[in-house]
Amino acid sequence: MKIAIGMTTAGLVKSQTTACLIAMLKALKYEYVFLLKEGPNQPLNREVIAEVALSQGCTHLFFLDSDMHFPPESLNILLGHDKDVIGANYHQRQLPLITTVKMDAEKKKTIAADYPNGVFPCNAVASGFMLINTKVFAKLEKPWFHVGTLNGELEGHDYRFCRLVREAGFNVWCDLNIPIKHIGDYLY
């Protein structure tokens, strides 16, 4: 197993993210490459990182945004689930707190009962903390990461990616057990 750890940035990486990344790399049980792409166009940055990960023979791509706070074992935990696409629940950097996980409204009501271990299928997870099995890319048309519209509404590049993944027959999962925080004025 070879993991690409891809980070996009507009030029700054939070010091807490750097500390978490170092601890995660020390705990990581697999070979890895770190891919950093700087620039203002986040979807394009993700596209470039994915292409480089594939060209280097990586089995998995882990996207990590430059403003995340997470435990050292987070990536090992996600890899242990052996899912096509999996992420963790974290909040947008705003109040009131809004989750980045997208689900069918009816499913939200039964998560605790249906998935007591905290791992469940969902419509989408945000790409700021997302693990992708690279076999998924072979079934998707490019561009993989692109902002678009769906039913007349703006669709972010990460949610569009997850929709394409599901339409290609793969599943998107979320692990509620990993305590991820989004770094802003405080930890969201």
Overview of the molecule:
About 30% of the residues lie in helices and about 25% in strands. With about 190 residues, the protein is an alpha/beta fold. The termini are far apart. It is globular, with a radius of gyration of 16 Å.
Level of helix content? Answer: 25-40%
How much of the sequence lies in strands comes to: 25-35%
Largest sheet: 7 strands, mixed
Shape: globular
Major sheet: arrangement of strands: 2-1-3-7-5-10-6
Topology, pairings included?
Layout: E1 2-9, H1 15-27, E2 31-38, H2 42-55, E3 60-64, E4 68-69, H3 74-80, E5 85-88, H4 105-108, H5 111-114, E6 119-122, E7 129-133, E8 148-150, E9 153-155, H6 157-167, E10 172-175, E11 181-182
Parallel strand pairs: 1-2, 1-3, 5-10
Antiparallel strand pairs: 3-7, 4-11, 5-7, 6-10, 8-9
Keyword list:
188 residues, 6 helices, 28% helix, alpha/beta, two-stranded antiparallel ribbon, 11 strands
Q: Briefly, what is this?
A:
Helix content is 28%, strand content 26%. With 188 residues, it is α/β, with parallel strands linked by helices.
